[in-house]
From TrEMBL:
This is MICOS complex subunit. One of its GO terms (biological process) is cristae formation. GO terms for cellular component: MICOS complex. Keywords: Membrane, Mitochondrion, Mitochondrion inner membrane, Transmembrane, Transmembrane helix. Component of the MICOS complex, a large protein complex of the mitochondrial inner membrane that plays crucial roles in the maintenance of crista junctions, inner membrane architecture, and formation of contact sites to the outer membrane. Belongs to the apolipoprotein O/MICOS complex subunit Mic27 family. The keyword Glycoprotein does not apply. The gene is Apoo. It comes from Grantiella picta. It is found in: Mitochondrion inner membrane; Mitochondrion membrane. The chain crosses the membrane at residues 74-92. The lineage of its organism: Eukaryota, Metazoa, Chordata, Craniata, Vertebrata. Component of the mitochondrial contact site and cristae organizing system (MICOS) complex. It holds the Pfam family ApoO.
Amino acid sequence: LSLYSSPARETKYVEDPKTELEEGVSHLRHVLEPYTAWCQLELTDSSNVKVDSSLCSDFFSEGYEFLQKPPAGFYPRLGVISFAGVIGLFLARGSKIKKLVYPAALMGIGTAMYYPQQAVVIAKVAGTQLYDWSLQGYIAVESLWKDN
């Protein structure tokens, strides 16, 4: 008997069962497949990109032009906002809810510092939507309470 040999083990590949999240993402991808096909890119050569839909082409061309000629100070602002998100991830150790809330909150605060007018508009719209949703919830609970 050799000292360095080990008995051969019989191994068998077992695929992990899909989780609910994986099933949900798979279902969502299949549902959205016709819509994403509209925006598929056709590469004619390495430097020229054609887009099938006019809506998608407008969106991509505006974004491309914006990134080619950004406003003054755009990239430093983007760096600060991104860094705030990374700091939020660092501070959110442990809880999954913290990992969602902290980066989003810190990035929102950073964005609000650089773009105060847009932040006010978004806050007003979000406040109105939140009020409408709470009113709808109150009406639904009240109707359930009166029915019983």
